[in-house]
């Protein structure tokens, strides 16, 4: 149930319908779009959504599906159904072109069987009857005209007409030349009047030639005469023309009779073309607004991620602006979101986005939101937007609002979605606020889902203290005095009335008087909200910086552990190799000694020879001597208490850092350019002198800083094959995550969109990837993908 009747107009659904109408190729498709209804059956909505998504995939993948020409063959089939009627050449040709489109589409899906199962359901059990085409092709030529040889009689008649016209032309040429020689002819040549070939004769000479005058010029100085000699021949040609027309009608009647048994099939083809045009228009609109299919759930809940208002998106797209995406959720525990904040800060757009996307989804349209969004189904959609005061109905603005509230309360169920703009306005705030609070409490007790906007403080306070309700605010930049159009759930927002008034230049004396009249409590509440907003933004910015620092520390620790593990794994291998090398050296030394002793014996201990042999032995031993490695200087552990400025070493590691702050049992350490918090019992104090030597000799931090400095958050994949591109993306992602970069930029180009699709499917496998987005349309659009990490 949709209430009130103008709900579709107020939420912008009627404008969406008009945009889809422009993509239709036929009046039948336009009729289906105009009759598009909001549904509440899960299976039906799911079927329509999946059909649109499949057709969108066909268009985006540039599949060779040609749908360009088809007509309203339903009316033609109804005409065929009547006995004795017949279709004209143009009508038969329309059926022929439409059926060619049908068979082309059927052939496309037959070649891709089971690839698009939901679209295949549109023509399930629909036969391909090509006899219809053959019967039409036997009569019509490729341009849709009757073939001269459609029948033997027609061919004979056309031949006789050609011969008669040739004979008439030959005789007319002779008579015309004689008239020209006699100066009877006016300016001009032979011409046609009333289907007869005539000679333009000067009026004063009209009695000099025998014939029939068919016409005269406006001035009366020229008459158009058919010579008596060719009159009989022209009559014969006229009779042949009548015979030709009768034969053509006979052929068309016979062809129509042949098509009459196929009338039910023609109607089925018509239905298929109508549905195809309808789905195609929805898919084109989805591409236009960058819509996708969310996760459809049967429960009445909403979780929109990076949602955009489609009409606002198209408007901003023309002006080359970007829409700030909306993130909002409603479920069993958080049923109603009460949005507050500054004027022109986006509260109404937020509410209308939720309402319009819900209407679109339940009408079978894809929505401009991330595919991981979750959207349920509602039985009732109620909206109170705008001023519905009526002179005819004797309704004031507030009376109109109360009339809707009465209807909402009477018909609301847990499967109702309620949207109210400027809740409680239209009357004295002293009474409008409590009335709105009462309505809100009743709706909450009925467990409805909804989005409401307000400036009333009592509603904000009520939402903050009531289960099922939740405050939300549109963020505002206090420094620049501009709205950020970002929804933040969890706290109320200030109206920034005084700040905005001051920003636009309202006189100081007016502002001062206004503050006095507002009251101390209200001013204090508003100031608290403004301060809370400012502190929230500062905390948010600090949180982002801290997260980046923690990621860097985490990556450094991880790399350190990996290096230690690598050294541990290779220590045994190195020792084994060293032992083998030592054994080889000893073996070679033994051989040298044995050879030296043998030489001494051979020379019978000659002093000169013995001395020379000893020198050679000493020289060989020096060459094979293994230089003793310089042992690393042992770190001296200090037993004194740890203070700020001291150097400490992490237990069981070689990582050292300087103490920047001591907080109970925790230490804030400076590890190069990074900061880390560790427990006091996980470190040991070392001497400053020793720490400086080790830090200077340790190049790990330098190497890490160098890696971060040399890394560019941009990877160009254009021209690569799919497999090579995926390999490059894998290595690049691992390095980006290890270095703690918040996002990267992948340049893959547009082309056929195949490389873009492969990359985005691969990115889904990474749990560290938060989301992916296209570059701005002016800077590459969907040819560039931004990848944001958690």
From TrEMBL:
Q: Which residues are involved in binding ATP?
A: 341-348
Ranges in a coiled coil: 546-595
Q: Does the keyword field hold Kinase? A: no
Concerning SMART domains, the annotation shows: MUTSac, MUTSd, SMR
Q: Which GO terms describe its biological process?
A: mismatch repair; negative regulation of DNA recombination; rescue of stalled ribosome
Task: Please report the stretch or stretches of sequence annotated as the Smr domain.
Answer: 715-790
The yes or no answer to whether the keyword Ribonucleoprotein is present is no
Q: Which UniProt keywords apply?
A: ATP-binding, Coiled coil, DNA-binding, Endonuclease, Hydrolase, Nuclease, Nucleotide-binding, RNA-binding, rRNA-binding
Q: Name one GO molecular function term.
A: ATP-dependent DNA damage sensor activity
**Pfam families named in the record:** MutS_V, Smr
**InterPro entries xref list:** DNA_mismatch_repair_MutS_C (IPR000432), DNA_mismatch_repair_MutS_core (IPR007696), DNA_mismatch_repair_MutS_sf (IPR036187), MutS (IPR045076), MutS2 (IPR005747), P-loop_NTPase (IPR027417), Smr_dom (IPR002625), Smr_dom_sf (IPR036063)
E.C. number(s) listed in UniProt? 3.1.-.-, 3.6.4.-
In the record, the note on similarity to other proteins reads: Belongs to the DNA mismatch repair MutS family. MutS2 subfamily.
Q: How does it assemble?
A: Homodimer. Binds to stalled ribosomes, contacting rRNA.
Protein task: Acts as a ribosome collision sensor, splitting the ribosome into its 2 subunits. Detects stalled/collided 70S ribosomes which it binds and splits by an ATP-hydrolysis driven conformational change. Acts upstream of the ribosome quality control system (RQC), a ribosome-associated complex that mediates the extraction of incompletely synthesized nascent chains from stalled ribosomes and their subsequent degradation. Probably generates substrates for RQC. Endonuclease that is involved in the suppression of homologous recombination and thus may have a key role in the control of bacterial genetic diversity.
The name under which this protein is listed is: Endonuclease MutS2
């Amino acid at each position: 149930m949709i209430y009130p009747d103008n709900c579709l107009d107020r939420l912008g659904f009627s404008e969406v319908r008009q945009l889809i109408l422009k993509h239709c190729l036929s009046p039948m498709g336009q009729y289906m779009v105009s009759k598009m209804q909001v549904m509440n059956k899960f299976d039906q909505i799911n079927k329509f959504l999946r059909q649109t998504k499949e057709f969108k995939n066909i268009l985006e993948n540039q599949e060779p599906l040609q749908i360009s020409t088809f007509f309203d063959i339903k009316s033609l089939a109804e005409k065929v159904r009547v006995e004795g009627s017949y279709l004209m050449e143009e009508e038969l040709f329309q059926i022929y072109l439409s059926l060619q489109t049908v068979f082309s589409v059927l052939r496309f899906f037959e070649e891709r069987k089971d690839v698009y199962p939901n679209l295949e359901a549109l023509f399930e059990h629909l036969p391909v009857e090509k006899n219809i085409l053959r019967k039409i092709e036997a009569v019509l030529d490729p341009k849709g005209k009757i073939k001269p040889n459609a029948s033997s009689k027609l061919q004979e008649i056309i031949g006789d007409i050609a011969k008669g016209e040739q004979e008439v032309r030959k005789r007319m040429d002779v008579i015309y030349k004689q008239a020209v020689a006699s100066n009877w002819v006016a300016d001009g040549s032979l011409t046609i009047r009333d289907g007869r070939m005539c000679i333009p004769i000067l009026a004063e000479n009209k009695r000099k030639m025998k014939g029939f005058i068919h016409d005269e010029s406006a001035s009366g100085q020229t008459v158009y005469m058919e010579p008596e000699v060719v009159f009989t021949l022209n009559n014969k040609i006229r009779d042949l023309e009548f015979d030709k027309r009768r034969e053509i009608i006979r052929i068309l009647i016979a062809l129509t009779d042949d098509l009459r048994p196929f009338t039910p099939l023609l109607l089925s083809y018509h239905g298929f073309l109508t549905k195809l045009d309808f789905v195609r228009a929805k898919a084109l609109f989805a591409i236009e607004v960058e819509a996708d299919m969310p996760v459809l759930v049967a429960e009445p809940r909403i979780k929109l991620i990076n949602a955009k208002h489609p009409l606002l998106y198209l408007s901003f797209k023309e002006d080359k602006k970007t829409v700030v995406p909306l993130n909002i959720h409603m479920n069993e525990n958080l049923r109603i979101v009460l949005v507050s904040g500054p004027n022109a800060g986006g509260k109404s757009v937020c509410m209308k986005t939720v309402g319009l996307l819900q209407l679109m989804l339940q009408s079978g349209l894809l929505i401009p939101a991330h595919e991981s969004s979750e959207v349920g189904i509602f039985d009732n959609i109620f909206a109170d937007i705008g001023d519905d005061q009526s002179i005819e109905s004797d309704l004031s603005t507030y009376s109109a609002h109360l009339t809707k509230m009465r209807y909402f309360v009477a018909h609301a169920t847990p499967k109702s979605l309620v949207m109210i703009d400027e809740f409680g306005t239209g009357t004295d705030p002293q009474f409008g606020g409590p009335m709105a609070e009462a309505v809100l409490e009743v709706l909450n007790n009925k467990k409805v889902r909804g989005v409401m906007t307000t400036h009333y403080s009592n509603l904000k306070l009520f939402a903050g203290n009531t289960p099922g309700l939740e405050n939300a605010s549109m963020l505002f930049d206090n420094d620049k005095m501009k709205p950020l159009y970002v929804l933040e759930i969890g706290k109320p927002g200030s109206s920034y009335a005084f700040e905005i008034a001051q920003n636009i230049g309202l006189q100081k004396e007016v502002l001062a008087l206004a503050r006095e009249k507002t009251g101390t409590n209200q001013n204090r509440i508003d100031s608290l909200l403004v301060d809370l907003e400012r502190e929230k933004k500062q905390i948010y910015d600090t949180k982002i910086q801290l997260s980046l620092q923690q990621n860097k520390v985490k990556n450094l620790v991880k790399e350190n552990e990996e290096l230690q593990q690598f050294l541990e794994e290779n220590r045994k291998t190195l020792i084994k190799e060293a032992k083998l090398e030592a054994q080889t050296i000893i073996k070679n030394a033994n051989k040298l000694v044995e050879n030296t002793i043998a030489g001494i014996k051979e020379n019978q201990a000659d002093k000169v020879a013995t001395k020379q042999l000893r020198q050679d032995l000493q020289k060989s031993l020096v060459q094979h001597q293994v230089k003793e490695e310089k042992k690393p200087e042992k770190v001296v552990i200090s037993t004194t208490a740890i203070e700020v400025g001291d150097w400490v070493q992490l237990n069981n590691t070689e990582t050292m850092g300087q103490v920047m702050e001591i907080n109970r049992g925790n230490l804030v350490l400076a590890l190069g350019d990074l900061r880390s918090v560790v427990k006091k019992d996980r470190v040991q104090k070392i001497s400053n002198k020793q720490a400086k030597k080790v830090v200077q000799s340790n190049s790990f931090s330098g190497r890490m800083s160098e890696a971060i400095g040399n890394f560019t958050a941009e990877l160009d994949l254009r021209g690569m094959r799919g497999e090579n591109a995926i390999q490059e993306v894998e290595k690049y992602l691992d390095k980006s995550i290890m270095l703690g970069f918040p996002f990267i930029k992948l340049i893959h180009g547009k082309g056929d969109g195949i490389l873009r699709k492969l990359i985005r499917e691969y990115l889904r496998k990474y749990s560290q990837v938060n989301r992916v987005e296209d570059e701005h349309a002016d800077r590459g659009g969907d040819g560039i993908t931004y990848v944001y990490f958690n």
